[in-house]
């Protein structure tokens, strides 16, 4: 398979986020499978809450422009989001919204998402693993032109499945990562 870029990110900015740990591990799995797995930490790209009047007055924040360039250059997105009240995180929604905005005269809206392939996952210390947040994330991504692979990962009881180095070690999570990333890569060819 060719060297396609897969951006791996989590919808959490917390340093010790379980979701961030899975996104980091996904980047390594992507690398092992022959893709260019790249982890990005949204804590490094702080942005204000999206507001149309502020956008009209100030334009896109610099971090939104940087992320947009990264999203546009990648063929795939591996997104891990914690579940917030049965949906995906506000940080992830705000990021998606800012990156969707045009910032040049000739740019097509949603250009950073059109034709991308995504794998999605959630991690939680609870037994459901954040699974309730994945369907609304699938709908959002599909509506902006992203193809979401059918296999999704929800890691429940996560503290029982992660080692002291922050790596998930259970067979089901590891197999799920590999299956999801292979599915993504097969659609990128």
Task: Please tell me about this protein's structure.
The protein has 6 helices and 6 strands. The protein is α/β, with parallel strands linked by helices. The protein has a single domain, classed as Rossmann fold (3-Layer(aba) Sandwich), CATH 3.40.50.360. Strands 1, 2, 3, 4, 5 and 6 form a 6-stranded parallel sheet that branches. The radius of gyration is 16 Å and the shape is globular. The relative contact order is 0.19.
Give the SSE map.
Blueprint: E1 5-10, H1 18-32, E2 36-40, H2 52-58, H3 62-73, E3 76-80, H4 90-100, E4 117-123, H5 134-143, E5 147-148, E6 153-155, H6 171-188
Parallel strand pairs: 1-2, 1-3, 3-4, 4-5, 4-6
- Write the CATH fold name: Rossmann fold
Rounded to the nearest angstrom, the distance between the terminal CA atoms is 7 Å
- CATH class equals Alpha Beta
- CATH homologous superfamily classification: Flavodoxin domain
Multimeric status of the protein: single chain
Question: What string, H for helix and E for strand, traces the elements in order?
Answer: EHEHHEHEHEEH
Question: How much strand content do the residues show?
Answer: 5-15%
- Proportion of helical residues: 25-40%
Largest sheet: 6 strands, parallel
Tally the beta strands: 6
Uncertain segments of ≥5 residues (pLDDT<50)? Answer: none
Q: Tally the helices: what do you get?
A: 6
Query: Quick check: average pLDDT?
Result: 95
As a whole number of angstroms, the C-alpha radius of gyration is 16 Å
Whole-number tally of structural domains? 1
What CATH architecture would you give? 3-Layer(aba) Sandwich
- Summing up helix and strand content along with how strands pair, one would put the structural category as alpha/beta
